[in-house]
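Issue: ligand-bound run for SN-glycerol-1-phosphate - logging full I/O for the record.

Environment: standard queue, default settings, no custom constraints.

Inputs:
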Amino acid sequence: MKNIYNALVIAKKQNQKLLAILLDPDKIDWDMLQQMIEKINSSDATHIFIGGSLVTTTRIGELILQIKRFCKLPVLLFPGNPSQISDKADGILFLSLISGRNPDFLIGHHTIAAPVLAKTALEIIPTGYILIESGSETAVETISKTVPLSISDIDKIVHTAQAGAMLGNKLIYLEAGSGAKNAVPSEIIRKVSENISVPLIVGGGIRNRQGISDAFDHGADLVVIGTAFENNPDFFETA
Ligand code: 1GP
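Outputs:
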């Protein structure tokens, strides 16, 4: 399956909104895995993302194989570092943390990942990843040792997104951080979406249907839900 990105572009053109469920491999309740996958199957989710800022389990491949037994959604790696690569997934968001100035997360980890990825059939989707201030320090901020962009400097956020797309990133990801106190403000989503033509992903701190709709209404093409589903497997039935 090497058409994940094309499908994202077509969905954007058709204004079809997409939803990814982010699963942190360290937080999986293996005894409840099948039930969890059934919940995903009966939700509006269109994609599954797998990863986290810091993942210690060595069972990522096993997790993906189990998901694929029961679920047809494309599985994309969303890795915090090269140890989270698995050839069992369909593709990978090859993230460059362009809001930060830590060379490891701009190009360093990528040089370690490249020879590993070259031996897989994963669809590699270069993604400009922009961390936005969200009210308190998040894991991605701590681990990447980068400073998020201030929500009061919308121009800088827009220019970072534009530069990320001009550098060849095929997606821009506006990230408040997993479990963020505040999601990315609607106005920032709107301004960024108006100034780039590649699909826009938005995630971090979105806890209810209203938050998902707001992000879509302001220009997000794909919204990511992690913590809300992790805390409540009935999230998509009850939110
Ligand atoms: C994190 O954007 C994702 O990288 C999802 O965030 O866990 O807050 O939903 P939440």
